[in-house]
Amino acid sequence: MNADGSGTMAVEVNLNEMMAFGGSAMGDSLNVKLDTIIYMKQFLEEKKDSISQLSKDEREKLRKMENFNFHIKMNSETAEMVYEVSTKFTHIREANDILNGLEQAGNLMPSPDSSSQTKEDGNSPEVIGVNYSFADGVFNRDAYIKDKTLHKKQVDSLKQTEAFMGGSYYTLKYTFPKKIKRTSNPDATFSGDGKTVIVQKSFVDYFKDPDLLDLEVELEQ
After folding, report:
1. Residue 139 contacts by C-beta under 8 Å, 6 or more apart in sequence?
2. CA distance 98 to 86
3. Is the pTM of this model over 0.90?
4. Are residues 42 and 112 in the same domain?
5. Are 99 and 129 in contact (CB under 8 A)?
């Protein structure tokens, strides 16, 4: 966050452990090395003729992604699989679409196993939304469930993979233009200069109850 309310937001998904597990299971059958950045504005311009053939809904989804950049890194030899979605904003309300960008990024990310359902699952609607606000030196992050019926269905399906997902964490890291006076989360940790707050929860716990990572941060005046 900058003093004028603008800033940069990035979401990084680190799948190194999953890559290591998959690599050991598949042995030498998987050999992937990839390190690429997709600048969506440039990508959409280059593909505008093909995009014009898509449905109105698909074109609209892509249009909303034009200010996002995707950085994808995969290396089967080092068991690395990380992708990051980033965007700049002039007002915090613009950052509310970052998770939509992340959802679409899942569809663009190459799957290490073409026979898996990664692509299909990536098209599943996002069931957790986030609202951000920043006014009068107070930042708020408020997560909510978009579709309670679908959320319950996905929580139930987690039971099959909960043991595997037990080592996955959702980490928030926010840096502000001034020192932090207080936060609403008693488990939060801070950087040495007092301007960055970090909060981490089990991914499974957060998915079941998005309110666990709700956060209010008040800055010094």
Report:
1. 1, 92, 132, 133, 174, 176, 215, 216, 217, 219
2. 8
3. no
4. yes
5. yes
Do 118 and 15 belong to one domain? Answer: yes
Q: Classify residue 141 by its DSSP letter.
A: E
Residue 117: predicted pLDDT: 36
Q: Which of 122, 151, 183 is the last residue of a domain?
A: 122
Where residue 22 falls among pLDDT bands split at 50, 70, 90?
Answer: low
Same domain? For 137 and 150 the reply is: yes
Strand spans (E) along the chain: 7-14, 33-39, 69-75, 80-89, 128-135, 138-145, 169-175, 180-183, 189-190, 196-202, 215-219
Give 183-203 pLDDT, tens digit per residue. Answer: 999 999 999 999 999 999 998
* 195, 202, 23, 118 alpha-carbon torsion, rounded to 10°: -100
Read off the amino acid at residue 206. Y
Domain that holds residue 74: 1-122
Among the candidates 122, 138, 168, a domain finishes at 122
